[in-house]
Design a protein that fits this description.
- By secondary structure, the protein is of the alpha/beta class.
- It folds into two domains: 6-134, Rossmann fold (3-Layer(aba) Sandwich); 140-218, Orthogonal Bundle (Arc Repressor Mutant, subunit A).
- Helices cover 51% and strands 14% of the residues.
- It contains ten helices and six strands.
- It has helices spanning 14-26, 38-48, 66-77, 92-99, 117-128, 136-143, 157-168, 172-179, 183-197, 206-218; strands at residues 6-10, 30-35, 52-56, 82-87, 106-110, 132-134.
- Strands 2-1-3-4-5-6 form a six-stranded parallel beta sheet, sandwiched between helices.
- Strand 1, helix 1 (14-26) and strand 2 form a beta-alpha-beta unit.
- Helix 8 (172-179) packs across helix 9.
- The chain is globular, with a radius of gyration of 18 Å.
- 40% of the residues are buried.
Length: 219
């Protein structure tokens, strides 16, 4: 039997912290520490060396983006630790700051979505596996931005759906499951998307693909 995943949780609101911990434990994930500030989050993560860190974006001591900065510090010090940041507000810039130059092992979810246990546990599984899990609403905001001479206008509705799922971190097979189509159909859409957006397909790396899409949407 494989060992249970180990998680460290950072959340300053006691009820929310306990609710998230309950969801994780029910999924068989061991919560090795749960703290209420960013300084302690970095410290206990260094000590416990968990598989995943889940943190609110706004926490003491400054009640600003302390959780995000702690997550970035944790990633820099120990890249093998997966990180999920929870945000009360839809802010795509936070997600892009968290991803940086490497989307592997990173998740960004809106807090309201965490009320659904499956959303959180699915995200944990994906980031621990080295994938990314970015909130669909954040990606939709980026996809929906108006641009001058916008190449996105050339995409078909189905290609837009595929693009959004790619940016969330789904593989071709994951996109196929979400849209109830075949993997070859997704591959054809992906080829069309990259051609229309002028993005390189030189690398088959899922991480580079997600990063390329995010960088395009960020512009």
């Amino acid at each position: 039997m494989s060992e249970a995943l180990r998680a460290v949780l950072g959340e300053d609101q006691a009820l929310v912290r306990e609710g998230i911990a309950t969801i994780l434990r029910a999924a068989g994930i061991e919560v090795v520490a749960a703290v209420d500030n960013a300084v302690e989050l970095v410290r206990v993560t260094r000590e416990q060396r968990p598989d995943v860190v889940i943190t609110d974006i706004r926490m003491p001591p400054d009640l600003n983006a302390d959780g995000l900065r702690a997550a970035q510090e944790i990633r820099a010090a120990r890249p093998e630790t997966a990180v999920i940041v929870l945000s009360q507000f839809l802010d795509a810039s936070y997600a892009l700051d968290l991803v940086g130059d490497d989307p592997s092992g990173v998740g960004y979810l809106l807090k309201e979505k965490v009320a659904s246990p499956q959303v959180l546990t699915d995200a944990v599984g994906r980031v621990v596996a080295g994938e990314s899990a970015l909130d669909p609403d954040v990606i939709a905001t980026l996809v929906g931005r108006k641009r001058t001479a916008d190449p996105l206008a050339a995409l078909t509705p189905k290609e837009r759906e595929v693009l959004a799922l790619m940016a969330e971190g789904h593989s071709n097979s994951g996109v196929a499951r979400q849209l109830f189509v075949t993997v070859p159909a997704v591959e054809r859409h992906v080829t069309g998307i990259f051609m229309k957006l002028g993005l390189s397909q030189a690398s088959s790396s899922q991480h580079r693909r997600v990063l390329a899409v995010l960088r395009y949407l960020e512009q």
